[in-house]
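Posting this for the archive.
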Amino acid sequence: MNKLKFAFIAIAISASQTTWAGGLLTNTNQNVAFDRMLSREASIGIDGVYSNPAGVAFMEDGLHLSLNWQLVFQSRTINNDYLLFGHNQNNASTTREFKGTAFAPVLPSFQVAYNWKKFSFQAMFGVTGGGGKCTFDNGLGSFEKIVGEIGMGVSGLAKALDHATGSRLGLSSDRMFGTQGTYAFDSYMRGRQYYYSLSLGTAYRLRPDLSVFAGVRGVYAMSNYYGYVRNIRVGKVPLYTMLDASKTNASDIQLNCDQTGVGFTPVLGIDYKTGRWNFAAKYEFKTRMRLKNEAVNQLPSIGNLPNTLGVMFVKAGMTAAQAQAVLTNPQISGAMQAIKTQFDQKIEEATGEFADGKKIASDIPAYLAVGAGYTPVDGLKINAGFHYFFDKQATSYQHREDKLKRGTVEWNAGVEFDASKMVTVSAGWQNTSYGLTKEYMDDKSFVTNSNSVGAGVCLHLSKKVDLNLAYFHTFYSHFKSDKTENLGGTPLTYKADFNRNNNVFGAGVDINF
């Protein structure tokens, strides 16, 4: 009964988590110039409206516009190993691979600046978080793990009830729930998240070699999470018959939640030029985000368990008094009450993040970017940059940020060379290191450390029009974790190996009016 109790609670928790969460992921690829070089913190160009806004003040007077389109596709792979997976009626292997795909065919952004004398008035639109949807057609390993534990719990309950009723119901027989805890189920998970951003700001040249910037970015978050665990069967019997035989969806769990929110990000920047060197820095303050939920969720009818069992007993030929005697048996009634009490106590924790009408903390972390650029000879530019995201200071639901060791650290470097008057070629590299822990990682929302490489060209179509073309790929490292479950005194180890894959193609047009 304890195994069944915790199984019901855990499956509710699993079904309520996000698949595609912003969290640590801030989209810094807001211009195709970044895609082809990966180090733009100290570059002076129209893309600097995002990467180096103070430096834009050094561009020529007039109107400058950049229009960008990016295509992004990504996969997320989790390999799991768990002994109870061997009880799956459709796949007796103890190992599983769960793969999710994310695709954003159109990730647009634009930057615009109007330079007048010492001033640069700037605006930008982009998707600074999320940017697509991720789908796991067969659910997740954590889903199947819990269903496997449900199978064991239901078999244990069936044996206890047969013992208490003299096997009148034969619940633990092979034609019913059985004794092995075999199971089957259907599962699916999809998450979609977009953080649309519009920023406005002004840069000012204090001196011919020094400029500063101040601005603000408005962020509108729009997300949807949908998933389910349905048609759970233990042995040869649908699980719903143990909860409410009159409702075939009584054991189903479904999440369908829309989240929206608005936040504002103050931004400061500075740029200093000396000789062939350029130094720049940008600081984005933490964005306080509170997401409002509009949800239609479904949870198991767990409170109906005693009534359902009582009806089953009477149908099996027991009198009402005999059925009541079984249900009031201290071992049986105590276990059922524990299920109800534990479920009621945990339901807020389990599904609270997606409860209808609730507001959820989901701050965007503060972000520091520092860069240096050097031009050893005309036509050759070398850049290096550093990023730090203050993840541990950004409040998230139930303070998940406390499970991180530190914020995210990024290093990058890039080179740009004018191969001719019409063609500029570039390439770059970026390393991303998260402060991950095993406690932080789970298959509903995860990242891993990575190295990205990018390359591309800038075609100077005329004195006023440039065309940027780029591709970059991210190589993610594996992150392995494990945890031990104690089921009925038997320790079982649940292992997970996390990995991702990311590709971005981009094309952009820069116009100087």
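Helices lie at 2-16, 32-37, 48-51, 141-165, 240-243, 305-315, 320-327, 330-351. The chain has a mean pLDDT of 86.
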